[in-house]
Amino acid sequence: MLLQLAIDDPAHLGVVPEVIDLVDIVEVGTPVLKRFGLASITTLRERSGGRPVLADTKTVDGGAKEAEMVFGAGASLMTVLSCASPATHAAAGRVAREYGAHVVVDTIADRRLPRRPGRFPGHCDYLALHSPTDRRLDGEDDTRHIDAVASMRALGYRVSLAGGIGPANLAAVAEAAPEIVVVGGAITRAENPRRTAEWIVSTLNGHTRGRPPSRNSPK
With CB atoms counted within 10 Å of each terminal CB, which end of the chain scores lower, N or C? Predict the structure, then answer.
């Protein structure tokens, strides 16, 4: 499993150098991308130690134009919403191939998960099962994205799993074994981001099922 670190708040950019050797992909979260534009991709690339950068564009139209922008700025991956038109998926995919980049199809706004293989064009490198932030903040304890990993993998999709992943559900995430595990606040808001990231990596690799570092753990 690959660990993707999501940076959704500019205040958390400083965490990246502290944990970069422990993560596989660095994500420019949608709020950061909207606030700072393409410069945020350049900034994360400079801090990523050569790790690939994902731009969480959540593209729903203008697939070619947005793909040109983010891949031209140095991103290696971008997200396109699963509810976007087939033409948008195809357009983003064509540009991705030109750059040797990748597209993650994000289901965050679409409860209709694929029921057959090949629903998306061949460029679909990963299918993101993504629990929306606002639903979780509203008190909905949603684990459907974790529960759906097995069925999506059975259809032949490589899965990226995102949304509310942290100490409370990491054992279930490790059991589901998606190809990419996306973690944001559980690391960036931790008292000790590095120790928390180490624990997450260890758990995903099957080395431990122990308790995470407490908020009072010494740095």
Answer: C
Record the pTM. 0.90
**Strand stretches in the chain, DSSP E:** 2-7, 25-28, 53-59, 77-81, 102-106, 124-130, 159-162, 180-183
Please indicate, yes or no, if residue 41 is contained in any of the structural domains.
yes
Q: What is the spatial distance between Cα 75 and Cα 90, in angstroms, rounded to a whole number?
A: 18
Domain interval for residue 169: 2-204
With 0-12 / 13-18 / 19 or more C-beta atoms within 10 angstroms meaning exposed / middle / buried, residue 30 is: middle
What pLDDT is attached to residue 120? 80
Decide: helix, strand or coil at residue 28.
Answer: strand
CA distance 4 to 201: 11
Q: Count Cβ atoms below 10 Å from residue 12 Cβ, excluding itself.
A: 19
Q: Report the CATH number that the domain containing residue 195 is assigned in CATH.
A: 3.20.20.70
Q: Which tens digit of pLDDT belongs to each residue from 92-121?
A: 999 999 999 999 999 998 878 888 887 886
Total domains in the fold of the chain? 1
